[in-house]
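Notebook entry, structure prediction.
Reason for the run: the old model in the group folder had no record of what sequence produced it. Starting over properly, with the input documented here first.
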Amino acid sequence: MLISTGRKVFFGLIKKYDGPRFLSRGHSFRTVVGDTLLLPCQVQNLGSLVLLWRRGPAVLTAASLMVTRDERFRLVDGYNLQITDVGPQDAGDYVCQISDRVARDQVHTVEVLVPPSVRASPESRHASARRGGAAVLECRASGNPVPSVTWHKLNESNTRLGEGAQLQLSRLERQHSGKYACTVDNGVGPPIVTEFQLQVLYPPEITVERSWVHTGEGFRAELLCTVLADPPAEVLWYQNSFPLSASERVTMSVRGNNHTLLIANVQPEDFGNFTCVADNSLGRARQHVEVSGRPGAARFTSPPIARSRNSYTLSFSVDSYPPLDELRLLYRQLAINESFQQPGRWHDVVIPAPEPAGSLTHRVTHELKGLETGAMYEAIVQAKNRYGWNEVSDIFQFHTLGGSHSVHADELSPMFSTAVARRLTISTILLALYTHLLG
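New structure, fully documented this time:
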């Protein structure tokens, strides 16, 4: 190289200076708790300079010397920094720095992904509240990224209830009892499912299979009441207000929520009113069952449309252990127009008692004659044995052939046991019966 310095010109050799430089580059790293992480730091032409690893103000390494006492840190293949069993506390910036006047450095940013964890409340995973009250279930989740929390009720459909740390349930009913679960997930590792048991406390509720049980002397009677209660209820049976106890003929059994009273070889003194009474700390409930030898209500078996224009064969069956003593039939015509039904007067017919059937069910057939053509009628039946009259049957409607009004079976079938029609007509029917008897 030729160098000019004014008057003098001389030749000299100048050696080119190559200082240290990084071969690696700074990166952002994402790692999962428990993993091993390698942070690269590759330097060329370091010479006699010292390479430091720093985290904030703390020096981790100086040259090949480990300054930190944390044994999870070590240098690998030169100056690459390795961290084993990474924890949440290891997140942050790591600086690889050359200790010269320029203080050149290279920065790596570490983000530690943390699987979700849950803190449940109540810690016992069991909550209880009275019916009508409220309950709060809580899943406080932590992790990185921030986990999502979803709630489900563990039933056949696993009903989704909402999201967030708390599940608030208000106006509780007994149907709210059961298992609930929160699912915590942030995509790091498997989701965490925490289950809770919710107990809704309520006084007893009783339903009876039948409020009227038909039986006969020498036969058996079975009474069933279903009791729902929490806390569980104590259940007792009474007959005519007197408590019952097990005996040679009377047995009491429990299967789940079902409480059964079985009376074998029924005697006359077994007829009457029985009561199923349930008690728990929140209240008492009762339901009554009548055990009777009177006949069961008649069940109509004939088709709703007659086979002729002016007559109809009415068929029905009655359950009775003793022979039937008497049968009464009331029927009347319904005058139909487009807007209403105008009933006619009741016809009262005494039907001869059938011969003893030799079985529980007595089948009766009776022909009604002199009916109007193409007309609609309704009928009820009542039966009597030596224990008394049974309940009046449901209303049965039938239609004779002919006339301008065409009726199909599907128009009549829904009316055989219509509760509304029965309630509207029952007082009229009873009045007709009593008027006839008084006359």
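Summary: The helical segments are 409-412, 419-438.
The old model has been moved to the deprecated folder.
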